[in-house]
Structures are given as structure tokens and as C-alpha cells.
Amino acid sequence: MVLKYFAFSCFSLLLTACSSGNLSENESKNSTPKVAGEELFELNCAICHGLDGKANVSGAKDLSVSNLPDSEIMKIIKNGKNGMPPIPEIAASKQKMQDIVEYIKGLRK
Ligand code: HEC
Asked: What is the mean pLDDT of residues 47-74?
């Protein structure tokens, strides 16, 4: 009887060890969560500007050397400029605008 109980507690200990192992694995995978602006940038802007802002596809300005103020960046996203179309998906949301402006300013060196 005592032995049976002992075996059982060993088993449950093993289970706990396993599941906590999985947990920490997940945690380390999520240790660099994407900031909101990064995902928006990848979806809406990287196709021309590149993931690092430097791609220069069809005249897209290098965002790592751009030093426009927030208001100008927002204007360009809203209205477009020459080769850049307006991006209404972003312009429609104040939050997305702020996230993306923060993100592209982070691309500056
Ligand atoms: C279809 C290609 C394309 C897409 C998509 C695009 N851009 Fe552009 N972007 C351009 C081009 C081309 C220019 C250069 C415009 C000019 O000044 O002639 C530009 C210029 C800019 C500038 C001005 C840089 C400077 O210093 O003058 C900013 C800021 C910018 N883009 C941000 C964004 C953001 C943020 C997104 C996503 C929401 C985005 N772009 C999506 C093509 C694109």
C-alpha cells in the first residue's frame, strides 16, 4: 500500500517535471514578442521598404536615414507620396499610426 502510494507520487512528480519543462520552452520562444508596430510594418510596408527599412524598392526611401517628424510620417501614410500609395489600413487607426511611427523611428541608426 505504501509502495503503491510512493509509485504514484513518483509518477505525478514526473508529470509535473514534464509539463513545467514545456512551459519554460514556450516562455523562451516568446521571450522576444513582436511589438505591435513591427507586425504592421511587416504586413504593410516591408514589401517596399524592406524589413530593415533599407530595401529601396521602386524608390521607397531608406527609413533608417529618414528623419521626418511624426506628423510628416503620418501625413505620408495617410496621403501617400509619389511612388508610395496611401495606406488606409494604418491611417484609419490612431493606435496603428502611433505604433508604426514608433517602429520606423526605431529603424533609424
Ligand atoms: C508600394 C510601395 C510602398 C509601400 C507599401 C510603402 N511605402 Fe513608404 N515610400 C515608398 C516610396 C516610393 C517612398 C518615397 C516617396 C518620395 O518621397 O518620393 C516612400 C517614402 C516613405 C517615407 C518618407 C521617408 C522620407 O524620409 O522621405 C516614409 C516615412 C514611409 N515611406 C513610410 C512608410 C510606411 C510606414 C509604410 C507602411 C504603412 C510604407 N511607407 C509603405 C513606397 C512604399
From this structure: 95
Cell representation of residue 74: 503620418
Ligand 1 atom closest to Cα of residue 73: 29
List b or e across 72-82, with b for residues whose CB sees 16 or more CB atoms inside 10 angstroms: ebbebbeeeee
Supply the Cα-derived Rg of the chain in whole angstroms: 24
Q: Which atom of ligand 1 is nearest to the CA of 66?
A: 26
CA gap 96, 30 in Å, rounded: 22
* Number of other residues whose CB lies within 10 A of the CB of residue 53: 23
Tell me which residue has cell 507586425: 39
Whether the CB of 104 sits within 6 Å of ligand 1: yes
Ligand 1 mean position to 35 CA, how many Å?
20
- 26-57 tens-digit pLDDT: 444 555 677 899 999 999 999 999 999 999 88
Q: Are 41 and 103 in contact (CB under 8 A)?
A: yes
Cα 2 from chain centroid?
54
